[in-house]
Write a structure and sequence with these properties.
This protein is mostly helical and 391 residues long. It contains 16 helices and no strands. The longest helix has 30 residues. The two termini are 16 Å apart.
Length: 391
């Protein structure tokens, strides 16, 4: 077991802080920025799809390279630098074609960063993987601070300032990667399973299918929630508070996740999280004018994102082991956030005006219901004891 004192916790936490601080500016307000720049709902959906489309290829390419050279942090430093550099391009154009080109170029590097850092964090923690949630919660804290601060700022200043704020956090993210030490692989065990053998397992196929469906269901929220609230006469400050409340609930879950894992299996946590996700999307879709219900829906973010993500990180760690960890994290990112995000962004952008927001969020609830049935049938039944012990 590695010495807990040797783990660079504050540098790992700092990386998550600045990474999700950038997302705290980007996810809630980029749709508003695009709308202010004159793009239609369909174009906003397409640009959001381009943003996540590179996740299908980018994390796998960089993940393969990281496993090959054995230096995840070198990849992270390189891709973080070019992500920050390319984001400057958004300042100089509002043309759809060039916006799409910059989006693809930026996201090709940016989408490589997090899955490799997840792998690097788990390499640092090794047998202390239960401490992951305590480090990851600093990302949620960064998200909350910027989502509140940015919401307050754009109520008072032009939203054209948004790209400059995001660039500042991207640069800080790159800087932290420079001072974070790389994790050394110490395992000398022979390669027991090929990547192909792992990917053929029914529970692994089911795991990826469930996470693709989960991201499809989340896409209307990520792409249109702030626009949705604005259409129902909520201020940018109140929008920021609602986003922050969801992430605050996620932080509380991260703080107690170690204890929760002592009592419940990953399968049980996943099933409960999916059930609460169904409730969340129905509340958002059908009761947008009731602030008290929207507050409840945002508290359920702890389940729909936090609980599901923690389970996914642990299952990737379990299914792929140390020798395929970089590829496993990359596949999780590319298939769920990539493929799932593309499908979800396109369907929500296309149907937002055609069917209306109420039915779009109802479809999200239906998709989570399908994911729940797949989980019940294939995930964790044969390896229940092993999956429970992982926490």
């Amino acid at each position: 077991m590695n010495n807990p004192m040797s783990v660079p916790c504050w540098r790992l936490s700092g990386f998550y802080f600045f990474y999700f601080a950038a997302l705290g500016c980007f996810i809630p307000y980029w749709g508003l920025y695009l709308k202010d720049s004159g793009f239609t709902p369909l174009e906003i959906g397409e640009l959001s799809a381009w943003l996540v489309a590179t996740k299908i290829i980018s994390p796998n390419l960089w993940g393969w390279l990281a496993d090959y050279i054995g230096k995840s942090l070198s990849i992270i430093r390189f891709t973080s630098f070019f992500a920050a550099l390319l984001f400057f391009g958004f300042i100089f154009t509002h043309n759809y074609f060039w916006f799409a080109v910059i989006t693809i170029a930026f996201s090709f590097f940016w989408n490589a960063v997090l899955p490799q850092f997840e792998a690097a964090t788990l390499f640092h923690l090794r047998n202390n993987s239960h401490r992951y949630s305590q480090i990851r919660l600093w990302g949620s804290i960064g998200f909350i601070l910027t989502v509140l601060g940015t919401g307050w700022l754009i109520d008072k200043q032009p939203i054209k300032l948004l790209p400059f704020i995001i660039i500042a956090f991207l640069i800080c993210n790159w800087w932290v990667s420079l001072i974070t030490p790389d994790a050394k692989k110490i395992s000398t065990k022979p390669l027991l399973l090929s990547l192909g053998s792992i990917l053929k397992k029914p529970e692994v196929i089911a795991f990826f299918t469930v996470n693709i469906l989960i991201q499809i269901a989340h896409s209307p929220y990520y792409v249109f929630y702030s626009i949705y609230l604005k259409n129902h006469h909520y201020s940018a400050t109140m929008t920021g508070l609602l986003w922050a409340l969801g992430v605050l609930a996620e932080i509380v879950l991260f703080m107690y996740m170690k204890r929760i894992l002592n009592y419940f299996s990953l399968r049980t946590i996943l099933l409960l999280s999916l059930t609460l996700s169904i409730l969340r999307w129905l509340i958002i879709g059908w009761y947008p004018d009731y602030l008290s219900l929207l507050i409840i829906a945002q508290l359920l973010h702890a389940a729909s994102f936090g609980g599901i993500h923690i389970v996914a990180i642990h299952l990737v760690h379990l299914y792929f082991g140390e020798q395929h960890q970089g590829k496993g994290q990359a596949l999780y990112s590319s298939l769920s956030f990539g493929l799932g995000g593309v499908i979800g962004s396109l369907y929500s952008g296309y149907y937002w005006d055609l069917l209306g927001s109420k039915l779009v969020f109802s479809l999200a609830a239906g998709i989570c219901t399908i994911a729940c049935f797949i989980t019940l049938t294939w995930i964790g039944r044969e390896n229940k004891n092993k999956i429970t012990a992982l926490g």
